[in-house]
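Chain particulars:
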Amino acid sequence: MDPNEIAGKIMRARITGKGEQADKMQEILDSIKSGSALGLGGTAVVLPDIDASGRSRRALRDEKEGEGNHHKGRKRTLQSHTSKEGKEKKGRYGERDRYYKDDDVDLKELMLREKRGGEDYDKNYIRNITGNSRYKHNTMEPDFDDDYVNLDAYENRDKHRSKEQLEEKRRKSAINDYNKQSAIEANCYYCFNNKKVPKHLIMALGNAAYLMLKPKGLVPGHCVIVPIEHHSGGFVSIDENVWEEIQNFMKSVVKMNYQSSCGTVFMETQMPKHEADGVHSVIECVPVPAEMAGSAYGYFKKAINESESNWSQHKKIIETHKKGGLRHSIPEGFPFFYVQFGMTQGMVHIIENGIKFPIDFGEQVLAGLLELHDRYSSGRIKRKSFDEEAKEAKEFLGKYLKFDWTADLD
């Protein structure tokens, strides 16, 4: 089990008064941390069965089962041609019937493989030609000549390794991913693995996500919805069960703010380097007075249209409510700024220039709408004292608890 997930369960157990259960899980967490890295200190660590991109290692392993083409003795020949009668033979007879051994895989399976993170044939080609001694010394090598396309050059090298070699490579990759992820979580402001997480600002805790007041909020009631498990790819690519809990928190916050005569603006900023740098994805929730909430849509639309260059490769604004929400509006892997108004209207902008597009774009726009320029002129807000934060948390809970959906969880 992921250490961050265990820490979340410990916190939930303490909140619900299950101290004994929390103590037992704390012992498990401490034993994992004492190992620090796989097997060190006499502690065995079970590696998560996903890679650095969040793809299932098991699924990829099953998909590549049997890919190792390293055989003792004579090399096996792939049946690739057929006779005129349609009978497959091992030589080059008749018409070409297939190029790769998995050419008979159906469309459904191919789509599933692509979703898991299919092969990048261009990367395979570059890797193969740069690592080939014949190509380095002879640019006219026919295997890599533009006029002669050898499809083997586009294949992954792993297909020429034995199963033992593949397994060892995956093991090393899993260790590297685990150590990298552990280091990121230990310093992540939103991960329970980090002792510096402001626990006094956590307002509600689900099984997969939690609600926390933002320490340097733009206005009172400014909070964030955070997945418990560290996720850096934005909510476009998050697991369905986590997204469901996030939606529940959003609905609860909207109801709470509505009772206070406020609308709610949700924002997510996924910058170009966020996923590579391991930045924890969050959704910000900002209450906006009802008399200003009506103009928020037009205010953001104007600001987005004026951002970055006029010569954009992508459409400036994609209205997500017309496409079934954020997760159906843009593909995974794109940097974006997303804003949603209540539980209905929303828009997303694909960020093309991460240098020109400010990371606090949404807060800057809201500061203008709410006329908070003096407070937010420098883009920085001074954090309140612990006592002031505790007081704000108590006031927030007084409004929120009646709408808290996590109260029905076990």
Observations:
- The chain has 13 helices and eleven strands.
- The longest strand covers residues 262-270.
